[in-house]
Amino acid sequence: MRRRLPPARPRLDRDRTTVENLDSLLSMDIVLPIAIGMGAVLLMRMMPRLLARGVSFVPPKTVKARLDQGDDVLVVDVRSPREFAGRTGHIPGAVNLPLDQIGARLKEMGASRGEVLDTPVYLVCQTASRAAHAARVMRKAGFRDLSVISGGMQAWRGQGLPVEQGNAT
């Protein structure tokens, strides 16, 4: 009985041209899933910036410096009250305005929000995705000086910056 050999896999050959070698690599079964996976990762990393077109992303240390200088800024944490008060904590002085409540809360503020439309507002969530979405909503509501804290609370804590824990303000 004759033994069946598995189908031959393409392999690189030094005598072949680069194009021929590239063609061999592209014909491998694994290249397409890897390319799709890399594309998905890239898209996920860029999603916050795509959502918040026209809004700047600032490093956590820039926000910390402005807070330390006593600048008139507002830090808005758009995570749920449970996340805000939980183990991860929140930026000292931050106001909790959950993303799912922003539209209704802005309507409640009505004309009184005119007082803060020009105030620099820094938006934060866990990673920056929800904050980017909130920036889009707030820009439509007339806020002019919006920024998203790059990397969110993960980056803030990762850089050893101070956090508070406890109930939402």
UniProtKB/TrEMBL annotation:
<keyword id="KW-1133">Transmembrane helix</keyword>
<dbReference type="InterPro" id="IPR036873">
    <property type="entry name" value="Rhodanese-like_dom_sf"/>
</dbReference>
<dbReference type="Pfam" id="PF00581">
    <property type="entry name" value="Rhodanese"/>
</dbReference>
<feature type="domain" description="Rhodanese">
    <location>
        <begin position="69"/>
        <end position="165"/>
    </location>
</feature>
<dbReference type="InterPro" id="IPR050229">
    <property type="entry name" value="GlpE_sulfurtransferase"/>
</dbReference>
<dbReference type="InterPro" id="IPR001763">
    <property type="entry name" value="Rhodanese-like_dom"/>
</dbReference>
<protein>
    <submittedName>
        <fullName>Rhodanese-like domain-containing protein</fullName>
    </submittedName>
</protein>
<keyword id="KW-0812">Transmembrane</keyword>
<feature type="transmembrane region" description="Helical">
    <location>
        <begin position="25"/>
        <end position="44"/>
    </location>
</feature>
<keyword id="KW-0472">Membrane</keyword>
